[in-house]
Design brief:
two-stranded parallel sheet, single chain, 2 domains, globular, Beta Polymerase, domain 2, 343 residues
Length: 343
């Protein structure tokens, strides 16, 4: 008898629901009897969705991934993304990993779409691991916004992604409408602000469960000179979705926020340096390796980082020694260009 895996949860948007219905049907055909559940995450799950918000979807596979299942999911993810009328962001985790590591957003900011609801059985991610997740996330947005030669590190302190651009380069990624048409957008700015806010909240010892929650928690638990900036950026999302507004006065306001976010980025990178140096000496080997690599991907001035990496060349773990050597090679290669414009 064929196992039932049908749509049981819906949003208030019938257009989105039709996409979800088709998506669940494709999931059942692609992975028969292998899916424990499918969840909608993010703003559409919490009722905060705006025009051009992605549909964030999580597939939970039963037990552990079977051989080749991760690769098949990646192919599936790319294929359905090209077919959908709304932007899809599809991810997958196996049940065993969720139970072992815990989760945050899935616990409090999700909607069951199909399958068995296992959220009550999944633990909340421990704060140390949550902090690690939050501290590493902003780098990805900073890195991909700034064009440079392949392999070249970011240079601290950063400059704007495009100092001569109308929005200083924070509109580098277009947003797609339901017809697949691109529009000039500032989604990367909104996401960056929420990631920076979440990192500072995590440093204060708190979890956050959504973009909106990150902004509100920053006011409640941090409340510094960046709080208002993050709130104003999030308010732009509520007013205009993710598209750059047409009115000149609105564009001027958005431009002023783009100008100010750079200070928040550089403040975070200062915190991140201290965090990475501490990570070199704690946690699992994979965490220490990531910290060692990241310290070569961001070129910090001074001798503190090279000294810490040099010590790691005597570490007993070969992968840690290799990561330290590679980062030192990058620092030596690019430090001669410290006087060139920031990346």
């Amino acid at each position: 008898m064929e196992e039932e895996f049908s749509l049981v949860g819906m949003t208030e948007d019938m257009g989105i629901n039709s996409v979800l219905f088709g998506f669940i049907g494709l999931c059942q055909m692609a992975f028969p009897k292998r899916l424990r559940a499918c969840y909608l995450l993010g703003s559409h799950a919490t009722g905060d969705g705006v025009a051009d918000s992605d549909l964030d979807l999580l597939l939970v596979f039963k037990d552990r991934f079977q051989e080749g299942e991760g690769e098949r999911h990646e192919h599936f993810r790319r294929s359905v993304g090209m077919m959908a009328r709304f932007p899809l962001d599809v991810s997958a985790m196996d049940e065993a990993r969720l139970m072992a590591e815990g989760t945050v957003n899935l616990k409090r900011a999700s909607l069951l779409l199909a399958g068995e609801d296992i959220r009550e059985r999944i633990p909340l991610m421990p704060l140390e691991q949550w902090l690690r997740f939050c501290m590493h996330r902003p780098y990805m947005f900073m890195e991909r916004a700034r064009a440079r030669a392949e392999g070249e590190p970011l240079r601290y302190p950063l400059a704007h992604p495009d100092p001569r651009g109308e929005l200083y380069g924070y509109d580098h990624s277009a947003v797609l409408d339901a017809q697949g048409m691109p529009h000039r957008g500032f989604k990367e700015l909104v996401t960056l602000a929420s990631r920076l806010a979440a990192a500072e909240v995590a440093l204060a010892g708190k979890h956050v469960f959504s973009k909106r929650d990150a902004i509100e928690a920053h006011r409640l638990h941090v409340n510094n000179d960046r709080t208002l900036l993050f709130e104003q950026i999030h308010e732009c999302r509520k007013r205009w979705g993710y598209r750059v507004p047409e009115a000149p006065e609105d564009q001027a306001h958005l431009r002023s926020l783009c100008a100010r976010i750079l200070d928040a980025e550089n403040h975070f990178l200062g915190l991140y340096k201290d965090y990475l140096l501490a990570e070199l000496q704690r946690g699992e080997v994979r965490d220490r390796v990531l910290a060692a690599r990241r310290l070569g991907e961001i070129l910090y001035p001074g001798s503190e980082v090279p000294a810490a990496l040099t010590q790691l060349q005597e570490a007993p773990e070969p992968e840690l020694r290799e990561a330290a050597r590679e980062s030192l090679r990058l620092i030596e290669r690019y430090s001669a260009h410290r006087d060139s414009p920031a990346a």
